[in-house]
Design brief:
The complex is a heterodimer of chains A (about 300) and B (about 450). By secondary structure, chain A is an all-alpha fold. Helix content of chain A is about 70%, strand content about 0%. In chain A, helix 4 packs parallel to helix 8, helix 8 (about 165-190) packs antiparallel against helix 11 (about 220-235) and helix 11 (about 220-235) packs antiparallel against helix 14 (about 270-295). By secondary structure, chain B is an alpha/beta fold. Chain B starts with a helix and ends with a helix. The chains are: A mainly alpha (about 300), B alpha/beta (about 450).
């Protein structure tokens, strides 16, 4: 490369670390990572520049698929729905999880371990199973409507998965149900890390439960909040199975989400290029949102 | 000196660029320009083909469908011990999703069940993935066995542009017809069975109105999946729109319009039915399966659906169940229907002779008896094999009448690769009064005209 090269030969005793050596150790992992993640990613990016039905020959169309994505109101709506789902998958569970964890952390209830397990259970179930169960719960003659009728709220009953206003929130609430447990457990773990002396100090200063929470607990668990938000926001944006099983994007197109569109376009309607463009856009969006979350919530390293 | 970081970045970029420059999608997937297999030499002597293993992908998973398939496969292997059938059976939805990958892969199955429409068979034909069966049709005289109408829905032009004419790409086993199931006991409360069967579509509307007034559920509809409403819309459209226009719309051939006055009238009628309470509460939020099982358990006077529901409904309802197709004002019967998924042979199959022989075998006159035996409606010899009583007697008769003297109209979602989605969404909008009949028909027109003009 440069004139410095011969010197390495002359001083075998001081063996300069060769620059490629760490890469050698990393190689097996990199090969797997490359073959199963980078290669498909690059190929998807490539496919997104073509118009292809998945079967025959393809036509290079440049960025036309991305232009369609911007101009197609259906696809724009799908991304909008995904943003709504973030509220249900990430924000709502965070609020509930923080509240529940704060109470549990203060109260030191008996059987805490059991409670943790119970709230965590939805995380363990396959989403398809969850979706099938909730589809039954939301059915017009299902348990939810029966319960509403039983308490005299007949006028609230409706076909939850067939109602243009309520279907997206109904689907979103399933996400809340699934994610709250995870968030609660994460928050509890974070809170138990806070030294009890600090709590004693705050209490000596005369802080009540609420002050204590905002002044001490919340700042102490920023890291856990960042982790929880990252996981749940990703889950919200990549929602596919829940929508596929409960509503198939309906009624009309009121619950389509980008991941569902990717599947539908790639495997059902023969628009592989367009599907790849949606997938790439979704990937970029997930990256961007997580970057923002980590900038805002993650504690600065210097602290 | 070049820094290592930029060196690595450059290497990554070079790799990426190399990958991007590599084969464009669809150009290098094992298409070694197969010489068109000298199609003149077709052999129908299956016993002389030597040891052959045929891979068959079907979607005959439900009770009687699965049983007929097993019986026919066994009979075939008994007759031709040199041929082994390797069957891969999966649900309709799964098959629709996986077939694309399978046909473009290196080891395509020999025989596949491909849905007639543009999105499946049409796409496969235009990509050159299915074998043109014309030489076999001649060798086995399929035109004598099948009616021209039935064969037409498995015909495409060589380039896949025209649907309904051209080369034959598959053969179906069963017939399907969409009509009106009714519960005799529920019907008695609002009118006579004879009145209904002898009347025309106006009579049907009257009965629906009376049922709604009586507080019954006139029609059970479970439309959460979107497509079930298409089977309700089809017979309504058949009352308003000329059959030829519906055929063009359903087959995605140019020359018709969804926004015609007739189609808007049909859409208006569907919307009116919904507004008048002719459906159960919240059809868009009800499962298809829940709707027909509600009907079977006594909730509802009518269920508009396909003949494939007959076996399950009869088991639950017995003699209470009837089936008919409402007549138009001039007395003809027009409704949606067609055939079961046709069995096609793949272009890649190295065993085309054996595969075509197998397709011939499972659609033969003898096979039709096995199909009827196991509760399926054979596409041929329907009248011969009709049971003496029960709902299947009504259905076989209706199918015979519609195919011979009426109009068997194509499924509307066959039209374009995306029409299934578009139709489902448009009809859900219509039922929920989220869009006007004009808007809903415009949505369908956009899909249809984009496809027909894009060719």
């Amino acid at each position: 490369m440069t004139a410095a090269q011969p010197s390495t030969r002359e001083r075998p005793g001081r063996r300069r670390a060769r620059w490629w050596r760490p890469w050698l150790y990393l190689a097996p992992a990199l090969v797997v990572y490359g073959a199963f993640l980078l290669y498909p990613l690059v190929r998807s990016a490539q496919f997104s520049l073509f118009e292809w039905d998945g079967l025959g020959t393809s036509t290079f169309v440049g960025l036309a698929n991305y232009a369609d994505l911007v101009s197609d109101p259906g696809l724009r709506a799908a991304f909008g729905h995904a943003l709504v789902l973030i509220a249900f998958f990430a924000l709502l569970p965070l609020v509930i999880g923080l509240a529940v964890a704060a109470v549990l952390n203060r109260a030191r209830v008996r059987g805490l371990g059991l409670f943790r397990t119970v709230v965590f259970v939805p995380q363990v179930l396959a989403m398809v199973v969850v979706a099938v169960a909730w589809r039954a719960i939301y059915a017009p003659d299902g348990p939810l409507n029966a319960a509403l009728t039983a308490v005299g709220l007949d006028q609230l009953t409706r076909a939850w998965l067939g109602d243009y206003t309520w279907t997206l929130p109904a689907v979103g609430l399933v996400g809340t149900w699934v994610q709250t447990g995870l968030v609660t457990v994460l928050m509890l773990a974070g809170m138990s890390r806070v030294p009890t002396e600090q709590y004693e100090a705050v209490r000596l200063d005369g802080a009540g439960a609420v002050r204590e929470f905002f002044a001490l607990t919340l700042p102490s668990i920023r890291g856990e909040i960042a982790v929880a938000l990252t996981l749940t926001v990703v889950a919200a944006l990549k929602t596919f199975d829940l929508v596929y099983v409960t509503t198939a994007g309906g009624p009309g197109n009121s619950t389509t989400v980008p991941a569902y569109e990717v599947f539908q376009r790639a495997f059902r309607t023969g628009q592989v290029g367009s599907a790849a463009a949606v997938a790439i856009t979704l990937t970029v969006l997930i990256f961007a949102i997580n970057l923002v979350i980590n900038r805002i919530v993650e504690p600065k390293e210097s602290r | 000196m070049i820094s290592r970081r930029s060196l690595a970045a450059a290497a990554a970029l070079a790799t990426a660029a190399g990958l991007l420059a590599a084969c464009a999608p669809g150009s290098g997937t094992g298409e070694e320009e197969t010489t068109p297999a000298e199609a003149s030499e077709v052999s129908t002597d299956l016993a002389s083909l030597g040891e052959v293993t045929l891979t068959v992908w079907d979607q005959e998973v439900r009770g009687g469908q699965d049983e007929q398939m097993q019986r026919l496969n066994e009979a075939f292997m008994e007759e031709y011990p040199n041929i082994t059938i390797e069957r891969n059976s999966q649900s309709f939805d799964d098959l629709e999703t996986t077939l694309r990958g399978a046909l473009t892969g290196n080891e395509a199955p020999d025989v596949v069940q491909a849905n007639n429409g543009r999105g499946t068979m049409g796409a496969f034909v235009s990509a050159g993935l299915l074998l043109n069966l014309e030489p076999y049709a001649e060798a086995y005289s399929w035109a004598d066995r099948f009616s021209a109408d039935v064969l037409a829905v498995s015909r495409y032009s060589e380039d896949g542009v025209t649907f309904g004419e051209g080369n034959l790409y598959g053969l179906p086993q069963v017939g399907e017809v969409v009509g009106v199931f009714y519960s005799r006991s529920a019907l008695e409360q609002v009118g006579g069975e004879d009145e209904l069967l002898e009347g025309d579509f106006d009579t049907f509307r009257d009965v629906l109105g009376r049922a709604a007034e009586e507080g019954l559920t006139p029609i059970q509809l479970g439309n959460i999946e979107g497509w079930p409403a298409g089977h309700v819309f089809g017979p309504i459209q058949a009352q308003h729109t000329p059959a030829e226009a519906i055929r063009a719309l359903g087959m995605g051939n140019a020359g018709a319009s969804w926004t015609s006055e007739e189609n808007i009238a049909a859409a208006t009628e569907l919307a009116d039915w919904s507004a008048s309470g002719y459906f159960n509460d919240g059809p868009n939020g009800t499962d298809y399966d829940a709707a027909w099982s509600n009907f079977a358990s006594g909730d509802g006077v009518f269920l508009i659906g396909g003949s494939w529901l007959a076996a399950d409904l009869q088991e639950a309802m017995g003699d209470d169940l009837g089936f008919y197709v409402p007549a138009a004002a001039d007395g003809t019967l027009s409704t949606t229907g067609g055939t079961g998924l046709p069995f096609a042979v793949t272009e890649q199959s190295p065993n085309a002779d054996a595969a075509a022989g197998y397709v011939d075998f499972i659609t033969s006159d003898e096979a039709m008896e096995v199909l009827a035996d196991t509760g399926n409606m054979p596409v041929n010899r329907t009248a011969d094999l009709a049971p003496a009583s029960g709902v299947n007697a009504d259905i076989y008769a209706a199918f015979g009448e519609v195919t011979e003297n009426g109009n068997l109209l194509p499924y509307l979602d066959w039209a374009t690769p995306t029409m299934g989605d578009t139709l489902g969404a448009a009809l859900q909008n219509l039922i929920a009064a989220e869009s006007t009949p004009e808007e809903a028909m415009q949505m369908l027109e956009d899909d249809y005209s984009a496809f027909t003009s894009g060719g």
